[in-house]
Amino acid sequence: MIEIRNLTKSFDGRKVLDNIHARFETGKTNLIIGRSGSGKTVMIKSIIGLIRPDEGEVLYNGRNILAMGKKELNRLRREMGMLFQGSALFDSMTVQENVMFPLDMFSRMTARERRKRADFCLERVNLADAHDLYPSEISGGMMKRAAIARAIALQPRYLFCDEPNSGLDPKTALVIDDLIHGITKEYNMTTVINTHDMNSVMNIGEHIIFIREGVKEWQGTKEQVISSNNAALNDFLFASDLLRKARALEDRQKED
Cα(145)–Cα(156) distance, rounded to whole angstroms? Predict the structure, then answer.
């Protein structure tokens, strides 16, 4: 579990995060949603230690990342997996070599063990036949899956995903959502996803935090989001046409 307390951050006198308290639960897909500029990117960067907040605590199972020394921080980061918005694969490496990269950097495995682990992760994301290909030779959806395989190579306790469905068609985005959700359950990870994809909210939103102008405006589940009476959240959802469709579906189901 990850818990944040009183998380506050300002840039040039403008408060981007304002006294946010939240918990991200183990074994669940925890989503941070909000409009562009709402503060959700600063929030996730603060959680993983890329930005130091002005106030507050970020606790990993009770361990405050902001109070850690360099060695302890490095140990914690080995427990993290990262899925970046643009996949961030190395063009000069094969898919297998990309997945092996964190193993090469941080594990004490032999070369054979690293290859075996990389191939296992690629099989888990249905890319067993792509390990000798280069990123330029695979599709965007395959690149996302390869990035997920790399993110889980070190068997992380915490998985962070920044707009994982960016640039993907709806069908492929659904595959990526289901894969992230399945891996979260399989490895009992604490998964935190920064997204504005409302299909992801309704598909895998087990715990949702809505950020508005740096303030935690609402939290709940995908079931609760449909019936929420929070005006700001409803405005955000109506802008994506999600709430209208969800409530229409709910009404049809009641009639049936």
Answer: 16
